[in-house]
Fold each of these.
Amino acid sequence: MDEPKSPSMEKGGSSDMVTQDAEGLGTIGHVQSLSRKFSPWSMLALSFSVLGTWATFAVDLSNGLTNGGPITILYGLLLVTLCNLCVALSLGELCSSMPTALGQAYWVSRLWKSSLGRFVSYSCAWINVFGWWTLSASQNAFMTEIILGVRTVSQESWTETSPGWLKFVIYLAITILMTFSNVIACRKDWILRWFNNFVGAWFGGEFVLFSLAILIAVGVKADLFFQPPSFVFGHWINDTAWSDGVVWFIGLVQSAYGLTAFDAVIHLIEELPSPQRNGPRVLWMSIISGAVSGGLFMVVCLFCIQNLKMVLNPASGLPFLELVRQTVGPQGTVALFSIFIFNGLGQGVSITTTASRLTWGFARDGGLPFSHYLTHVDAYWKVPARALWAQGAIISLVGVLYFFTEAAVEAVVSVSTIALTISYALPIFAVVIFGMSDVPRGTFSLGRLRPVINWVGLIYCCVTTVFFLFPGSPSPTVATMNWAIAVFGAMLLIAIAFWFTKGTYMRTDRALGEVFRAAQLEGEGGS
């Protein structure tokens, strides 16, 4: 059952606006349980830091350099940005129409007109939740690698591989910190709002700081040089056994990964005032801000690369860290990455926030084991604390894989982009096949452009998902095989098992019918 409305909701805006937003949520079968604590700007700051585009591009630099090089990195980004904008606009129209934390899965349940609709919606929910769980795990794993990677720069004589138990301890500590921070951050509405404002501003400032530090270092040091424009804007690199055509598409993964997870606002939409208007705006603005900052930073990195071979095979295992070391020097690298780590932890808090609301939303509709327990919103902390801690426990389990092989950790965290992309495609596919005639219209509409935008977004999601699953070579070995497909398949088997053993998903359908019936009666009484 949904929790009763909290008095603190009145702090999220004017009483008329709060009442309107609560009534709008009621029309899709839910009670307002969380306060509308975010402003549009704080939500954009959260989305910008969750995307983390310029930092994600930098971390995944080796993938872009080996699969097409500068041509794929820059021109592929233009293509990916255009296609992602189409996806965001398509989802924005649905978000404006039906703003709910479950997002894509709920929209599928309303749009899909066949008997399979509830199962497809359930599958979409599991895929989306799994995508955000693995994205949280990927951020925590990334911070673990950065913390240990900085040690190789500060102590160049230290070349030993970090033991699995040490990585697990750091990973677990980060996961607990992310979860605990989220539990206490909602005690007062302003805390989470201003925290995300700070993280977003810090992340933007950090982008400027890293760019200037690298450019100035190369400009003032006599032994360093800038790469020529012909390399930055026209050099093609294929260090794989795949053909150039395949490599072009595989190289798009870097850009796609850096612009995935823009659906953060969708799953926090019940905490945003005027969601029908503000939700779609945040969606497309987060992609634009991410693409611009990411593209500019890639131009900086490409101009400042010194030793390409060492960047592709760094001692730390992190190409971006090696690039900074070559330009700024060891001491400057340690200082810059200390700031990078601090902000990365802030980004992790925002990712955990988003994932927890989706977990809570899925439990609210009966899709998870122990849903009734997980749906509870703590009256003191004003947050779904049980869902947060349960999610933290699941994400912590990924760290156990460090005791066996790091490749297993990489396989799990690499699934996030695949899962999220599929969750974007399913509601768009439902619109293309069944239309939107039976759903309420929001304030944001694509109008006559809807078919074109939907088809571009759908084709993009399908094509990139296929190439996300490609192995490292045409004849893969155990080491070069892309095991993401196995992890994704295991997740689907678990989800299907819960479907047949639990079967309570979308238990709010009855409440939804009652809401519509009451609205009809109210209209008849007033006529």
Amino acid sequence: MITLVFTSLLAGFLALFLYQRMTYPFFWVDLIYYLKLRRYGKTLRARMQQGIITYLDCFLQQAKKNPNKPFIIFENQSLTYQDVDRRSNQFANAFRTEGSLKQGDIVAVLMCNEPDFICVWLGLCKLGCEVAFLNVNIKAKSLLHCFHSCGAKTLVVGADLVRLVEEVLPDLKNDNMAVWVVDHSSSSEGFNSLLDKVERMSGENLSDLPKVDIMSNFLFIFTSGTTGATCVLKKKFSASQFWKDCVKYNVTVVQYIGELCRYLVNQPMVPEERAHSVRLAAGSGLRSDVWKEFVKRFGRIKIREGYGLTEASIGFLNYTDEVGPIGRASYFNKLSMSFELLRYDTQTYEPVRTDCGRCLRAQIGEPGILVAPLTAMNQFLGYAGNKVQSEKKLVRDVFKVGDVYFNTGDLLLHDHRDFLYFRDRIGDTFRWKGENVSTTEVSEVLGHLDFIQEVNVYGVTVPGYEGRVGMAAIVFKQDHKLNGPKLYSHLVKTLPAYAWPWFLRIQTSLDVTETFKQQKVKLVHQGFNPEITQDPLYFLDISQKDYILLTVSVYQDIVSGKIKL
């Protein structure tokens, strides 16, 4: 009798196990990940009960615990936690003594990858200053916009970026901006040298570190960043040196954007690409075909593709080995983080609403706009100095009167296996070469040319490339025509290369919606194929510094990869 019962129970468990494997194959993986998040959340709440813990606190704790451990490795330099702690103290004392900086002051930092970038940042943090990181690729007008947006009255600039700042120095002086160059001297009038002051300062710990609360501003971010323990820095990314550096510095974890991985798989083979110690690659934007080739070619590296935002507390991580998704949307995941995918109008990219004014959820297998509810624990504090743009990111009365959701502006797809896939970025932004491009900014820049009357900027896909490359539909002023060399010269002076429109579509008028918004959907769909449209198309030929007519032959060379973008 006991044997029969045992056999029946065993058969039942086996049947249940097989049913689970067939219908919910990721049940245990999802559950384990959920429990890890719960444990992490519990630990975080316990630590927060002890008071606010900042990035600076974490660094100082590490410096005290592991003073001689390498913190930054840069070219032939190796700086320990203690080295960086002492040098950041020197920067803090210099800023306080020579620059009269104090808690709450906003300081913009325009520096390339170098150890002193970290030391300047930490030094300013030790004074309680709010730091704004600026993109070193931006041009003069965009630089001024960043200053005005964050409200900075002090700029710290790297020695190799002085020329960029010189272009806007008169405007900065009109705004009473103090400019410090990270060098021992300054050959340009209007710049204060910094390093000569720093090296006279004490490296001892500051006795009066600022007190902060949960709502204190820490950083103004215009571009994405990264944090870690030991960090290996380079001035610029080098695909040919990547694996050699990984072997040289015994790197175990790398962070990527999808374009970076594509560069690596397109490089010639080197012995180091299989002799490294890298065990994990984490990032976003990795295309499935590149993903497969990356894992196949570079060894047993776990890929952890994710999705996240700086503006709101929503993010996903693909903690499985499934190729392609950015995360999971299982029952357990929704317990830890609330989000919705909304059905949208393909012409306006606005959420579709019922006759009652409520939004509709996207169906399984249908792309939808990712939105997240705003709560006490998930707030959206807005964009610095721009209440209008902040309000545009909110969707109100979504499922009931009074509810408010943050609109990410991204299209995601939830499939029948509960995987989430990134499909596209909508609205006035597209991504190219790992950078976000504002169509509004590019349109404004092009609009300054005397031969352009109207312009509509958008991104189009190119086979073999991540993201979307810039394209512009242009209407000329009466009795004017395209001046390619002038346009190229204007782009070089005003925009980083990743924001340039590589393709032009010449039109007699621009299509608009019923509410007079520029119509992009049809333009994006038709792309730059000369066989689809009768409008003249042009392509940016860097070698000629001019836009040339985009023929079928040129088009074929681009899509085949013969012509590189």
